[in-house]
Give the backbone structure.
Amino acid sequence: PIESDFELVTGNPSHMGAALRDMYLSTIVMKYTVSNNIVITGNGRTLAISAGQQSRILATQLACDKYLHWLRLQSGEVTDIISPLKSSLTNKIKIAGQLAISEPANCETNSLTLLASDGYIPFVDNIELAAVSGINMILEPNGAKRAADIEQKAKDNLMTLVRTPMRYFYH
């Protein structure tokens, strides 16, 4: 993809430059991931991937759950407990995962978090789920029958919505 492949539909224009690296990264990950897939990226890192789900909402739910789990793992309480442990990396990861389950996720981040979909987002419930998970930017292909509904829900949740002609939805 090239920069002109990303079209701002609604939201903050300054997000386009700030999230360009994440949009590129997301499109590369989606290209090599089984559909239906959702990719969540932030600060040049892939934070969550869901792949091969039967519906877009299941893919969104799984990716958002993985993202929230990742946020919990980043909490100070979890890292403070596992850092001093004299244990193998595998064991530390296992302990951190168990601790993260009970830790509430802090969705308040100061950085852009992008949710990218390999196919168009068909219903607003995907946007609602992304919003409550702390996602503030959406990337989807053109072509949704309910595109106006998706745009409005993104506006209602103060999210930036970007569309692209590229579609990585394969079956």
